[in-house]
Specification:
The chain is mainly α. Helix content is 44%, strand content 4%.
Length: 196
């Protein structure tokens, strides 16, 4: 999450009791960084295999913590995450599409050759521009207008299920739920134009 406003907490005035008072590392608010927060890494095998289990300690002891490896604040409890998503004034969505790890110099050179830049969209736009764009697109999302896509979604779903139905089991994410939503989104985006 990205807080747009400067922290209201003075150094040493930590809002979370779970932080270890004798931790050597300090976060951007001056709060000590606990051993769990210092060790947290989204690329670690434990997190990749079972994110919920890897964050059990945080949900119990430190539901909001600063990860120095990522350079981001991490929010782990459902109600807190919901509150962050609903408050786009305090928590800016502007960095939501940024990569956690930087691109290699080779990849950066290729992107530069094509003048690639991350444009603002509905998901990474601050107010008031976000609401203006959202209002302009709302009519496209009413059920009557979405019904146009139903035959395509049904056809795609049947095609993908037919690929694995005789196997008896399937990993739906790998075998269906990556490609179908992307295909539908690309069709939807092409009918709306670049505004989405």
């Amino acid at each position: 999450m990205s807080g747009k406003q400067k922290s209201e907490f003075a150094a040493g005035d930590c809002p979370f009791h779970g932080a270890s008072a004798n931790a050597e590392m300090k976060g951007p608010t001056g709060c000590p960084i606990s051993p769990g927060a210092a060790a947290f890494d989204v690329f670690d095998n434990a997190f990749q295999i079972d994110p919920a289990e890897a964050l059990r300690w945080a949900r119990a002891q430190e539901p909001v913590f600063y990860s120095p490896k990522m350079g981001y604040w991490v929010v782990v409890r459902y109600d807190d995450v919901k509150a962050v998503f609903r408050d786009n004034v305090t928590f800016s969505p502007s960095i939501v599409l940024e990569k956690i790890t930087p691109s290699s110099s080779g990849a950066a050179a290729v992107l530069a050759r094509y003048n690639y830049a991350m444009d603002r969209t509905l998901v990474n736009e601050d107010e008031p521009v976000h609401m203006e764009r959202r209002r302009a697109l709302m009519q496209s999302f009413v059920p009557e207008n979405l019904a146009h896509y139903e035959p395509m979604v049904r056809r795609l779903t049947r095609e993908f299920v037919d690929r694995f139905i005789d196997k008896g089991d399937a990993d739906l994410v790998d075998e269906m739920l990556w490609e179908i939503p992307l295909t539908v989104a690309l069709h939807f985006r092409s009918s709306l134009g670049a505004g989405l």
